[in-house]
Amino acid sequence: MIHFIFVQQYEVEQEPGVLAPNAPIQVNLTPPQVFQFKKYEISALADFDLTGRILSKCNYIFGTESALSPVDLAMGWKSMSDSSVLDKIEISQSGRRYRWAVREFPISRRDIETCSANMHMIPSSSAVEADLQRLRKGQVIRLKGKLVSINANGKWFWRSSTTREDTGNNSCEVIWVESIQVLDPETIRSSNQWTLVD
């Protein structure tokens, strides 16, 4: 059984307009990079760099996955980072899934499906975990890490999606999170487009 906590989310309000215009950047790793973390063997499948808006946040405290991933974020980019679109979509999370509903589509179904995703966050350090816990719905963040698969002694497996084109079961990203940056709303509103730089 999966146990989760809905924390009162004091949403960061944003004015209309696309705040994260770019799709996530993914660079596949061939062969995957394998390392040990706690009792798990983790295979890094791809480097992952996302600038997106937090559509919802859910904390988990029980269940096999929670030992690794205490936080799920539903993330949106392109049209799914625009308040004028999101105001017309009901978004929720539970059971390690992200759900949306509309009365009528403000954008196409396919745009909703391919410009948003539920993402399981595995903090790489206690500092990153603290950063994850401080995040709030509505914030625009830049997140860097790796898409991973996990093997627990051959008895339990968890594997990330490696495409933004899929939907349904097994379509969530499992992310080894190396850094998180909250982007300033005033800077976002005054910029026509974000350019990702190191």
Please provide a written account of the structure.
The protein has helices at residues 83-86, 109-114, 126-134, 185-190, and strands at 3-5, 25-37, 40-62, 71-76, 90-94, 97-101, 116-123, 140-152, 156-159, 173-183. Strand 3 and strand 4 (71-76) form a beta hairpin. The strands form 2 sheets. A 5-stranded mixed barrel has the order 3-4-7-10-8. The longest helix has 9 residues, at 126-134. With 198 residues, the chain is mostly beta strands. The chain has 4 helices and 10 strands; from the N terminus they run E-E-E-E-H-E-E-H-E-H-E-E-E-H. It has one domain: Nucleic acid-binding proteins (OB fold (Dihydrolipoamide Acetyltransferase, E2P), Beta Barrel), CATH 2.40.50.140.
Describe how the helices and strands are arranged.
Elements: E1 3-5, E2 25-37, E3 40-62, E4 71-76, H1 83-86, E5 90-94, E6 97-101, H2 109-114, E7 116-123, H3 126-134, E8 140-152, E9 156-159, E10 173-183, H4 185-190
Parallel strand pairs: 7-10
Antiparallel strand pairs: 1-3, 2-3, 3-4, 3-8, 4-7, 5-6, 8-9, 8-10
